[in-house]
Amino acid sequence: MSKPRTVIAARSIPPRPVARNLLPQVEGVRFVAGVTASPEAVTVATIEAEVDAAEAKAGAIKLADIVRIAGLVRDVSPDDAPSADQQLQRLVTAYKTANAVEAVAVFKGIPAGVALLKDDDVEVLIRKTALRFGIKEVVPCLLRIEAIAQDARQYWKKHESERKPHSQRAYGIASFAVAAIEQENGRHVPGDQPRDASPSFKDDLDSLKHQIEDAERQLAEAAQRSAQVRYGRGMLWGAGALVLVTAMLAAGFQHWGVKAAYGVAAPAGGLGAIVSVLQRMTTGRLSLDYRATAGMLTAFGAVRPLIGAIFGVAIMALIAGEVVSFLVVPDANELAFFAGLGFVAGFNERFAQDMLATVRPE
Question: Would the pTM count as exceeding 0.90?
Answer without folding.
Answer: no
